[in-house]
Amino acid sequence: MKGYCGKILKVDLTTKTCTDVYINDEIYENFLSGAALGAWWCYRNIPAGADPMGPDNVLCITSGLLTSTGSVITGRWMCVTKSPATGGIGEANCGGTFAPFIKACGYDMIAFHGASDTPVYLYCDNDGPVLKDASHIWGQDAAVAEKMLVEENTVPGKKRPQACTIGWAGENKSFMAGVCNDNGRIAARQGVGGVMGSKMLKGLVLGGTRPVSGANPEEIKKLSKMCAKRVNMAFLPPQVPAGLLNVAKFLPELQLSPDGIFTGVLMGTWGTAGASGFAAQTGEAPIKNWGGSQKEDFHIRKINKTDGSQMLKLQTNRYYCYSCVYGCGGELDISHIKHNDQGYSRVHKPEYESQWDFTGFLLSDDNDAMLFLNEYCNRAGIDTISTGGVVGMAIEAYENGLLTKEDVGYELHWGDAEGIIKLTKQICHREGIGDVLADGCKKAVERLGPEFAKYAVHAGGTEPPMHDSRPDPQQATLYAIDATPSRHTSGGSLYYGCMHLWKKVTWAPPAVLVGGKEGEWQISDEESLKVLACAYFKRVVDGAGGCYFGFILGTATYPMFEWLDAATGWGKTPDDYMWIGRRVFTMRHMFNIKQGLDPWYSRPHGRMVGEPPLKVGKNAGKTVPIDAKMMNAWKNAGFDEKTGMPLPETVEALNLNYFLEGPIENFIKEEVR
Amino acid sequence: MKIEFHGPSMCDFSKMDKNGDIEVPEGTTVKQFMKIVKLPYVWTKVFPFLVNYEKVPYDTVLKDGDIVSAFSPSGGG
Fold this sequence. Notes:
By secondary structure, chain A is an alpha+beta fold. Chain A contains 28 helices and 16 strands.
């Protein structure tokens, strides 16, 4: 076995039929598995101009090539579809314990075609798939639905199955809805849960137990031991307060090549939210819907009220995702906090994105409100990044008179936790003004009017994460040129410095000092190649089922290329794998073009690139020359630098005409079950 | 000999080449290296400090190609 099953399950929800689809090795060797396999399947099966919420759309739920092979930090599962938010390729991924169960059923991916006219869920184990009625759980939140599905499909003496579900937001076809597992972890971005809701598919329950192996399991094990040993060496004593990291604001801004191993320090000790204090003070965290500054708008005392140390006070236990050695997850007891009108008790520790979205980004220092909202959104199955973004837009519109109390039904101000909670609940349930906002900023502007556009911060229909792109032109360019725009998990200057790709990939430029960061604002092939190296490597990692926190460990500690080769036995070089990453990168853009998108559609909102520049704070005066950056990146990717269209010679060199337009019989064999 | 160094931005990187290596004399100890790059002792006591991804005594003699890693704040999530 080469790490993959060589087979996917195609489920037609309209006809209620299931088909085993055998995929040729050629596809895996040229695209890997995971998100890349999903994107290939979407390209081949979703017609041009398909309604994302219609039966022509396809929703792929996939595991990675390395998942279950013995590699570590490779347990992500992914949703791939046509996004209702962007109209292009939509993608989201998630950790937890769900991913290995896909392959344990004998499939690399489960692809849902068509749409059911009544609520259903898919059950699958070693005996195969069956669609079951889900009427009794339709209307339940994602966590309750998951619990019900797992319990009713658990057979005494057999392995307990795992499930993923949608919540209220998915049922309501929100463009911000995600798909949840492990009681509220969520593959959140770009409306993948809304697509699932449009198919009346409430969940998947997987109970397979089939083994998975790689070509060289001993080598995989050896590499995994090395990775785990290094991560375990790099931890802080737990008594160190997160506020100590605020020292970062006194450090000079340099183009650095830090050892990514120390991301483990933060993740393991505080979870991802441990970074919020120094992120805010170094200009990394956007404030006040990207319109403010920490210095002027959000005092350090407010940050310290909501940072990772506050969460540790409520933490009952840490946990690890499948195959993880970081352990950034944790459970908190929030039964005693204010605002908790749902009686939540044990909940997931908020991620940095959610934590900052519901605090500094909206100028709220109400830690309890943030903790409550995080859990409410998890159960609703809605993306906290996009929700925070659209709430920020609404508050700013209210403060500037574009929305009134009559429009909203209550007052809505910066830092007003009560108002933020009310509005978030309405968005989750599509009630009142929440219905207008439930599909994100871009759609809200279409509904409310163009005067709202100045507060609607997004790129191509996706709200940006809590990583400010003004101090990081690489990040800004990645937000703009990724086929799934506004994605923070693709890379950026700091992350490129951590990855050390130049030590393994012949064409990747070194990211090493010496000097300030001024060079990052220059338009140069070298800067563009760094951006593209991040983008291509991300495609490799997503094909493998890897975690972003793994890839910022650096390729010496997180031996992605070596693991892939040990699993497959292909004998490929890092350059070969990056070529695959480039093929997937280009294919995803070709999907968007096939669906009618102009590549300029994802040019970020002006605030994301400092147009106009801020006047105060760490990012004062910073403007990213984003048009020139996009054009130079396109040129280096082999795209037309003016239009962003892949050049024919690039498509030819990557053999994409063959894979995307050649007879499908060349690549698959179908057996109806 | 060359030592690969990763450290916080208050260190002295002026001797670092484009590949991230710093040339130091044979026989240089960890403590001497910290002086060369101006890495504060207290930083290595509060935050993780590793040589070849191991914790080592300060009098350890470095070898050509060793990797010295001092904590530098970075985030994600």
